[in-house]
Amino acid sequence: MRARFALMLLLSFVFLANGTSRSTDLALTGAKVYPSPTDPPVENGSILIRDGHILAVGPSQTIKIPRVATVIDCKGLVVTAGFWNNHVHILTPALLHVRDSSAKQLDEQLDTMFNRWGFTTMFDISSVLDNTLELRRRIESNELRCPRILTVGEPIWTIVSALSGFFMPLLSSSGHPDSETEHS
After folding, report:
1. Which CATH class for the 83-153 domain?
2. Smaller CB count within 10 Å for the chain: N or C?
């Protein structure tokens, strides 16, 4: 019994000494890093990421990379700070039926619209709120690959915009009629 306890205690110290933990470390090394739009680039820079959070950015020689980290050699590549898309409408036909769409279908559309451009946050300035909130829920649960969504919610429909021949037919064909304007 004492030998088993001593072995467990010893193994615990070994794991702690090696820095082994449940966290996941990722190191991007050797890249040209633009940490912000206003700072000069860092040549031969490294970025240390733990559990999806950036811990350190700087010249490679100043970043201590844990032995257990996954290292990606980014020599000859450029890394920039994430971009925001500040004018999004989640009204495209492919994104209007989030509850009924598969993750594969949505990921393909989100990759085309946002992910491939390096967006980390998008600001939806009008959409069908229930649909956008469902999209955000599926993103936050890690079911979908997509940037963070901020939204103002439902647009304010006027008779002119409702009759413009674009928004109302689009929403109606997608099963999202607006009771205030559908009889206008």
Report:
1. alpha beta
2. N
